[in-house]
Write a structure and sequence with these properties.
By secondary structure, the protein is of the alpha+beta class. It contains 10 helices and 8 strands. Strand 1 and strand 2 form a beta hairpin. Helix 6 packs across helix 8.
Length: 257
């Protein structure tokens, strides 16, 4: 298991802004020796999860992930389900809508849509959504085990704006409040001048599988708009939950009725 953990740790450093990494740099980032790093990369390469640029000799993600992604989508078509619901939510609220699934250290966007209007919040689907700094992240933690919450808060909590909360105790309180409310409103946490309203969608065991959210410019946020949006977001959560065979939590259901 330690070898698997090390392999996943190495893979986490590949991002859209850093798609290729040299051996020495990857070993430095992961704080491993070069021999161990190379041995893991060779093993991943044997299964097509890593490939080497023959010109630069840097490493990048391989095609093996595409095969697994296709199997995942064929058996649990969350992307198709989320896309339909996000489209509905965007049209209903006339604001940017997006849905995400859980990754190891953040949420990953699987669907998003921006409305056609003058000022909108733009979503970069390749950018991870930090658990502590986004509405989606807080509400996802709220409906999961305490062990996951503590693991998320034990990681380095980066600041993305001057109002990003990084105090674990404050974040624990926000997570607790979000569970009671069934939704979470986040302001200026991940992007300045942006408000996000999110609700979770659920697995069959009642834990959150991911989140669906609306993002709006803070200048358009009013109490009336927040109240309307949280109901629509909760309805979208129920749509996805039902489609994947999950059970809507009563704290989310109460927002719809």
């Amino acid at each position: 298991m330690k070898t698997v953990d090390k392999a996943m740790h190495l893979l986490s450093y590949f991002t859209p802004s850093q798609p290729e990494i040299g051996l020495s740099e990857l070993a430095r980032l992961a704080q491993m020796d070069k021999a161990t790093t190379r041995r893991i990369l060779v093993s991943l390469g044997n299964h097509h999860f890593i490939e080497q640029n023959q010109i630069t000799k840097s490493y990048r993600l391989g095609s093996g992930f595409l095969h697994l992604a296709r199997i995942r989508e064929a058996t649990t078509p969350i992307t198709a389900i989320a896309t339909q619901t996000v489209d509905w939510l965007c049209e209903t609220t006339n604001e940017t809508a997006h849905a995400s699934v859980a990754g190891p250290n953040a949420l990953i966007t699987v669907a998003h849509k921006e409305p056609i209007r003058g000022t909108v919040v733009m979503i970069d689907p390749t950018e991870p959504l930090p658990f502590h700094a986004t509405a989606s992240g807080i509400i996802f933690l709220a409906f999961n085990d305490n062990s996951l919450i503590e693991k998320a808060l034990a990681n380095q909590l980066n600041r993305f704006t001057d109002q990003t909360e990084t105090d674990p105790e404050v974040l624990r309180h926000r997570v607790s409040q979000a569970k009671n409310d069934g939704y979470y409103l986040n302001e200026h946490g991940f992007e300045s001048d942006v408000a996000g309203i999110a609700a979770p969608y659920f697995n069959a065991d009642g834990t959150a599988a991911g989140a669906i959210a609306v993002a709006m410019p803070i200048s358009r946020k009013t109490e009336e708009l927040v109240n309307k949006t949280k109901r629509h977001v909760a309805a979208a959560s129920a749509r996805i939950t039902t489609a994947i065979g999950g059970v809507v939590h009563p704290n989310v259901q109460k927002l719809i009725t």
